[in-house]
Specification:
Bound molecules: cytidine-5'-monophosphate
Shape: globular
Mean pLDDT: 96
Helix content: 25-40%
Distance between the termini: 31 Å
Strand content: 25-35%
Length: about 280
Amino acid sequence: MPFSRSLTLYSPAKINIFLKIVDKRPDGYHNLSSLFQAIDLCDILHISLSSQDRDTLTCNDPSIPSDSTNLVLKAVELFRRKTGLMFFVKIDLEKYIPSQAGLGGGSSNAATTLWALNELLDQRISLEQMAEWSEEIGSDIPFFFSQGTALCTRKGENVKNICLNKNCQPLWIVKPSLGLSTPLVYKSLNLSNLPFYDLERYLHCCIRGEWSCFNDLEIPAFTLMPSLARLKNKLLLAGFHTVLMSGSGSAFFCLGEGKLPDDEELYMKQVKVLNRERNIWYTP
Ligand code: C5P
């Protein structure tokens, strides 16, 4: 085993340009239809094969668990189980994507880990195969094996690459200090009064480069955290023409020429969409 090899990879966040909840499934999950877009807000993953007989994970953010509950180590275990290979890794994760934000940070880290292991261990496992494996540990992980823009359906694991015309509006991520738990947001969702959206029309507007945005998880998230609805209004009043929660929150993405509030409690970062070539991992 070539113990000396190591890799450093970017692990990007995502936003959901639109997110429609279709129905609840017998397994407790929800079918959805969502246009996912990768963005250049990235964590950085340093990974090498280890001569020790266990995996080690370190992280610059002490609030991130570094035990087997972390999706990075779940991805390592998944790769071992699916390939039957015996190896151990040393991983250092530089975290920049806020947690509990709906930005897919943990899912992206898991996808990046699988991509890295395929390279480090000289395997030729297809992206489609790794995407299929990864849905066992998280519904949002398969998206990251797309080329950065995809329509995701079923639990999120059915991924179809989409090509969008350029949207030239400035794009900002804004997140309050409090985060939201994904299972709790889904639990607070009332399926009986979701609005109707013409998804074909929404998708075609996005393809033309005019983002049409909505998120069925905003109402349950606002019910759990009423301050989020107030933050959305504040950002709209500040001049952004679109302010939408990403995934299950609590981060928003804002489009347009707004004036950001002067509030130290808020995380704010200007970002760009990020796409990749088929055989190259994401590079901002
Ligand atoms: O798949 P993942 O572990 O990321 O999902 C976290 C939680 O989000 C699930 O336990 C479930 O409560 C909810 N979820 C859902 N329907 C989906 C995706 C996630 O209900 N399509």
